[in-house]
Amino acid sequence: MKTLKDIAGLYKTLAEANLVSGPTRAYKTGNLLNQVSSRNNANSMISTPSKGVYVISLNYSPEGATYGKFVEEGTRYMDARPFAENAANSPELKRAIDNFVMGKVDELLVEWQSKMNNKMSNAGFVVS
Description:
Layout: H1 4-20, H2 31-39, H3 42-45, E1 46-50, E2 53-56, H4 68-73, H5 83-88, H6 91-122
Antiparallel strand pairs: 1-2
Helix pairs in contact: 1-2, 1-6
C-alpha cells in the first residue's frame, strides 16, 4: 500500500514534470521548478485536520516564485498552464490515492471484525 508520503511525492513529481514539458510547460530560467521542488516536501504537503481526513496540497506559488500563481491560474494576458491541477487529476495519482484509500478501508474492516469477534467471544459464542 502506498503511504501518504509516497502520494505527496508522486504529486510533486508529476507537477514538476508538467512544468518542464507538455502543454503546461512553464520553464524558462528554472526558478519556478526549483522553488516548487525545494519548498514542497511530503511533510509540508500533508495535513490531517481531523480523524480519517487527509489533505495533500502543493504550494505552486512558493516564496521566491510567487508568479507560479499566474502560471497555474492564468491572467487576462496569459492563458493558464495548470501544472499542479493537471498533476492532481492525473490517472497515476488517482490510482495511488485509490490504493491508499482501499488499504485504509481494509485496515478499518479488520479492526472492526476483531472487535466484533472479541464481543462475540465475551458473550460466550465460539468464533472461528
